[in-house]
Amino acid sequence: MSSNEDRQRAASTRTGWALSAPALLLLAFAASGPLLIVLVYSFLTPGDYGNVVWKFSLDGWRGILFSRDIFDGTLQLADAHLTIFWRSVKLSLLTTAITFAVGFPTAWFIATRPPTSRALWLFLITIPFWTNLLIRTVAINEVIRNEGIINTLLIWAGLITEPIRIIYTDTAVLIGMTYVYLPLMVLPLFAAIDRFDMKLLEAGYDLYASRWQVLRRVILPIVKPGIVAGSILVFVPSLGAYVTPRVLGGGKNMMIGNFIELQFGAGRNWPLGAALSMTLLIIVTIALLFYVRAANRGAPHG
Amino acid sequence: MAERAFSATRLPGFATIAIVVFLVLYVPIFTLVIFSFNDANSVAVWGGFSLRWYQIAWENDAVKAAAVRSLIIATCAALIATTVATMAALGTTRRAAFKGQTLIYVIINQPLMVPEIVTAVALLIFFGFIKVATGYQGLGYLIAAHSAFCVPFAYLPIRARLEGMDLSLETAAADLYATPWQTFRKVTLPLLLPGIIAGAMLAFVISLDDVVITEFVKSGGQDTLPTYMLGQIRRAVTPDVNAISTALLVLTVILLTAFFLLTRKRD
Amino acid sequence: MNKDVAVEVRNAVKAFGQGDSTLRALDNVSVDIRKGEFFTLLGPSGCGKTTLLRLIAGFETPTSGEILLDGKDITQDPPNRRPVNTVFQSYALFPHLTVAQNIGFGLEMQGRPTAEVAAVTAKMLALVQMGAMAHRKTSQLSGGQQQRVALARALAPQPKVLLLDEPLSALDLKLRKEMQIELKRLQLETGITFIFVTHDQEEALTMSDRIGVMSAGKIQQIGTPRDIYTKPVNRFVASFIGETNFLSGTIDAGGVRLASGDVVEAGGIEGHAGKVTIAVRPEQVRLTRAGEPGALPATIASWVYFGTDTHCHLTLSDGTEVVARLQSQASGDTELEKGKAVALRFAPGAVQVLGD
Fold it and tell me: What count of other Cβ atoms lies within 10 Å of the Cβ of residue C170?
């Protein structure tokens, strides 16, 4: 490369940075930067009325899994904490599985519509996604609560006499999260299926495959990047869910997000809250790295 | 023996599941909307059509204040985020890849990759510092936070539009003696405008809908519509929440339809 | 039921759309394809040849009519229950499988034991000379290589009929010619009935045992390449295959009287009367001295030199244009001059009366 091209390149790079600077500064100030402070806080000591005392302590991190006995100061496994983590992981995995089970046929359906109506179907699946999370959660509440639609219909049909308690259970949270995150599974799946060469289906049938074999041996392996993307897009927000478990789970069925909030509220243990946040961030980053690796592996060569 | 004609793309049961999914997706929303017009005080019983909950919500000072605040924050955040995102898009597309570009992507898209609760906690602490240090308690923190997480939502459509733009138009302008600034103003910007407007609308919707970050960053009495509703739900689900939700929903759908029309590929 | 027939198509109709906008891709098509033959469906885009192929494969169901394979009605059978395999125009190789896995796919789906699948795959790889690439992913292959894999994949399950949908259209000229020879060889070696679809008439003429010429959803003519070329039944077939001169005349005195007044001998006169069109191939037009008895008077309008031959454009006395293809004389074309008066003869048996 000639020095002329070098200079042009350098100028172009400088312009690139200069134009990106305002965005970077804004995000460093109000998004990324403060994350470092959280890391710092996780190594401090809780203050009596919330906030922190600037004394180094690993109790924040220890507190994730252990609680200190107030009498003899020994560390014990905190069952309550483990329950919360297990609930979060369990519900997130279940949400991912269920959204995939119903989301894949939905994505397939949309992708196989004639081009004219396909945009409409896509629009229809996207609207709930952009609708306020709170509204959607409230809507589910209207459906599953004791005086909600399901119970009203069942009582009216004579199938039950007392309303079934769905609200404020793990099931309620699961229903809520599945409902809320379903579009996030459908959209990447749709993108992958849209790129799929439908002629391969004819080739499969031509070579004696049954419908099930075509699904298992031809379709699923090829749309795998979409499956991975959708799974990550559902699993990650589910793990950090806050609104849905709060509204549908009541105070008792906490997930990690609610547990974190507790530490900054009545729990008065900011370092623990900070440590929990960092842990959540680490888990999410690992999941994202998996996604990036899988996405790159699925990319066509040559 | 198959009754209907063979179709390679048909998978048994898939269409049924898909239709059920669409219904299930919309039934709760429709219920919400319909019962916002319900005269009776419960979801189970239909008491006749009435606008009374809308009226109650409208006359509620707290609701009005929250609504106004939501709109102010959303407007400011959309403006700031879109401006900043447009510049970033111009800086990161259609030029040779430079070192650190990946880092820029990561930072710009950070709100999409980090769970909201984590960011919310981080801002609670950080802004808490500043509140104590400066005594400033105004809307600035909320506007800053919203602008930040709206950036990726404005950035992506603008970038997509920019990448799809025909370079030869700007080359033609240069050939006709336009300076880079003139080219930008007279050629690039007008062509980019649909993408910018789409990005702004998306940012507006995102800001309007935010719950978690707003809940943690706000000072006392600084409710937005979503946080007001969250507070209400804790106590009891009254139909005026339905009314507010429906109003928000209508606004969102209008903006989204416009967004879709703007970003539709012209054949 | 004729035991020699592999595929029988009876009155097949395929209509798309409804009411006023109904399009008949196939309009009452009937054809018998014999066992072990290389049969080509030839026609321009949109003539229905691919639709007919897809009907036989099972990807489409006819609006009405039947498809029979070995005497059995397979019209309603889905493609995975027909012992028929297809080589697709875009090859449709499975990108997530290797060459060997692609080739063995059909056998696997049929549930054959692993050892058998491996053995047949090896045989197929040898047959198309792709043994060295067995474990490559198909996306790493060139167009010609992909084509051979597609062929091997379709032949591996030993179908009763092999369908080929314009498989050579994506290849460059040289590769195409090689593959034509290769395909013919394979067909003779395996003895499988091939049904080949193409729009390239030269390809059809060189490779086929019989050709079915199609246009606008109908079969225009079925016959051997020689029959199709020398005895086209109508104007479409005559002009689609090779070049043709068309002349109008009336049936008179055992021949056809042209507008110039001369009478020429013509084949296929039976069943026709009155005004007809006759067809003559340019290479069947002979140039002689003006005034020769029994020859048609004409003047030279222009000519184009092609190396191996010269195309000469002539005008008859009534203004009709005729193209003659003359083999270049060693002595050069000193006899051709613009405006020169000459006479034309048609080779015996070369004139055909056309159906419409």
Answer: 15
Query: What is the bridge-based pairing of β-strands C245-252 and C341-346?
Result: unpaired
What angle is formed at CA A243 by the lines to CA A242 and CA A249, rounded to 5 degrees? 90
Assess contact for C116 and C157: CB atoms under 8 A.
no
The verdict on a CB contact (< 8 Å) between B2 and C78 is: yes
Number of other CB atoms surrounding residue B61 within 10 Å: 7
In this prediction, residue C332 has a pLDDT band, given cuts at 50, 70 and 90, of low
Contact A202 C92 (CB under 8 A): yes
Closest C-alpha to C124, from C158, C94, C161, C84: C158
Strands C64-69 and C5-16, bridge-based pairing: antiparallel
Element (H, E) at B72: helix B61-92
Q: Which residue has the tokens 């049909």?
A: A157
C62 pLDDT higher than 90: yes
Provide the H-helix boundaries in chain A: 3-27, 33-41, 59-65, 79-111, 115-130, 133-144, 149-156, 170-195, 199-206, 211-213, 220-222, 224-239, 243-249, 256-264, 270-298
Distance CA A256, CA C78 (A): 52
Nearest to B7 by CA among A69, A202, A123: A202
- Total residues found in chain C within this entry: 356
> Which stretches of A112-223 are DSSP H helices?
115-130, 133-144, 149-156, 170-195, 199-206, 211-213, 220-222
Which strands sit side by side in the sheet containing C275-280, from one edge to the other?
Answer: C263-264, C255-258, C245-252, C275-280, C352-353
The helix or strand, by DSSP H or E, that contains position A67, with its residue range, turns out to be strand A66-68
Phi, psi of C211 (to 5 degrees): -125, 140
Q: Scan for tokens 């808490």, then name that residue.
A: B128
What gap in Å lies between CA C65 and CA C75, rounded to an integer?
8
Give the HSE-up count for residue C97: Cα atoms under 13 Å, Cβ half-sphere: 22
Which chains have at least 3 CB atom pairs separated by less than 8 Å from chain C?
A: A, B
Distance separating alpha carbons of residues A289 and A82, to the nearest angstrom = 25
- d(Cα A298, Cα A195) in Å, to the nearest integer? 12
Q: How many residues does chain A have?
A: 302
Assigned token pair, B94: 């259609």
For C140-170, the DSSP string reads GS-HHHHHHHHHHHHHTT--SEEEEESTTTT
C59 touches chain B (CB under 8 A): yes
Residues of chain B with pLDDT under 50: 1-2, 267
pLDDT bucket at C198, cuts 50 / 70 / 90: very high
pLDDT band of C159, cuts 50, 70, 90: very high
Nearest CA in chain B to A132: B209
Identify the pLDDT of residue A47. 83
When scoring A49, A100, A135 by the number of chain B Cβ atoms within 10 A, the one with the most, hence best to mutate, is A135
B205 touches chain A (CB under 8 A): yes
What's the pLDDT score for residue B256?
83
pTM, full prediction: 0.83
Binary contact (C96, A221; C-beta < 8 A): yes
* C-alpha span between A42 and A56 (Å, rounded): 9
Task: Flag if A149 and B98 touch (Cβ within 8 Å).
Answer: no
Copy the structure tokens of residue B170: 């700007």
**A38/C350 Cα distance (integer angstroms):** 95
The 10s digit of each residue's pLDDT in A175-232 is 999 999 998 899 889 989 998 999 999 999 999 999 999 999 999 999 988 898 889 8
Cβ atoms of B207 and B74 within 8 Å: the answer is yes
Q: What are phi and psi of C156, to 5 degrees?
A: -55, -45
Q: State whether ipTM is beyond 0.90.
A: no
